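Q: What structure does this chain adopt?
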Amino acid sequence: NLGVAHAVGDWVYVLDADERVTEELRSTLTRLIVERGPEFSAAVIPFKHHFCGKWIQFGGWYPGYCRPQLLKRGSFRYRSRLHSGVDVDGPEIVIPAEDHRLAVVHHTYQDLNQYPRKLNQYTDCEAKAFVEEGATHSWHAQLAHFVHDWQVYYDSGQGRRDGMHGFILAFCSAFYRYM
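A:
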């Protein structure tokens, strides 16, 4: 929200340091603003998540829609809690995932050494937020979340179709929730 206050122009594109916009996506978004800008306040864009150098196509990772990224100035505000999203005042459109060239390229984890560092940062922030909210937990609930998330990513999400990368990412994602 602080950065947005200093932005210029009618539209803001929020991009994390580990995300990239393809030339095709840039051209499409520019054309969309020119041709249909008055019709919407935000655009949700597919994500191509890469894990240890591989595009993860299954396990619920593609199209990986997570939040609106193209936002009309004055029509949105990010929530204060980490990864809790953005509130948009007005219609949102969704960029279809059929053409993967129109997806944000997200390099989530370059290697397995990076995973525990990010895990510690994110779980510390989330744990602090849970404490502030007065949330309770038990090892039973943590284990149940681990099993549920494993099933979502690997079984029903077919993470196995991404091979060993899918297996490891499903395990790491379930472990994240457990932690």
